[in-house]
Specification:
globular, alpha+beta, eight-stranded mixed beta sheet, 10 strands, 198 residues, 4 helices, single chain, 26% helix, two-stranded antiparallel sheet, 29% strand
């Protein structure tokens, strides 16, 4: 199990799946004394990201193991013109469910996203992390990210900024199959076939 996983765009009816993972992770973090994600998932934002094709789910067979959102939005409160914000893709809402703990699934997602950035002609994959979760920052650094700076705005909980070169891989997680285009069966129903290797 988990030797290969599939990463594919979330379907229009899967916003609740992403929200449930958010809430599950929020409870798990709270039990560890971490104040990250202690508020309800923003369903409108999730739905908008699904509609734009930016929200992805990762599966082992029929079992959903996690999610990641990747887009070109450079938060102007964090990334300045000196950062050349258009030269990167940005990862958000990276969640690995507890049923996938210990298999380095996060490493697979963080190998897939720089590959996506390189295919888009970008130089970087960037993330902004929770300022009060130093373990998360250390995790990103272990995954090949460099700490750019921390922007400490009183109205923002995030602000620790990291980037990793586009196309870079660590190869420490499960192999992944990347699907970008939804297929349909003979009845017009959504169907994800294995047609596109990463």
């Amino acid at each position: 199990m988990h030797d290969d996983v599939t990463i594919r765009p979330a379907g229009r009816k899967e916003a609740d799946t992403i929200a449930a993972m958010w809430e599950e992770t929020g409870r798990r973090l709270k039990s560890k004394g971490i104040d990250q994600w202690q508020y309800p998932a923003n369903m409108q934002r999730i739905s908008d990201d699904i509609r734009r094709g930016n929200a992805y789910l990762v599966f082992d067979g029929p079992e959903c193991l996690g999610t990641i959102t990747v887009d070109a939005f450079a938060d102007p409160e964090f990334w300045s013109l000196n950062d050349i914000p258009g030269d990167a893709l940005y990862a958000h809402r990276i969640i690995v469910r507890s049923n996938a703990a210990g298999i380095s699934l996060g490493a697979s997602l963080l190998d897939w996203a720089p590959h996506k950035a390189a295919k888009a002609g970008k130089s970087w994959l960037r993330v902004d992390a929770w300022k009060t979760n130093p373990a998360l920052g250390r995790y990103y650094e272990a995954q090949g990210f460099t700490h750019v700076r921390t922007v400490d705005l009183p109205h923002r909980r995030s602000g620790a900024l990291y980037q990793r070169p586009a196309g870079s891989v660590t190869g420490t997680g499960p192999r992944y199959l990347s699907l970008e285009a939804m297929l349909h069966d003979e009845n017009g129903n959504e169907d994800w076939g294995r047609t596109s290797e990463a």
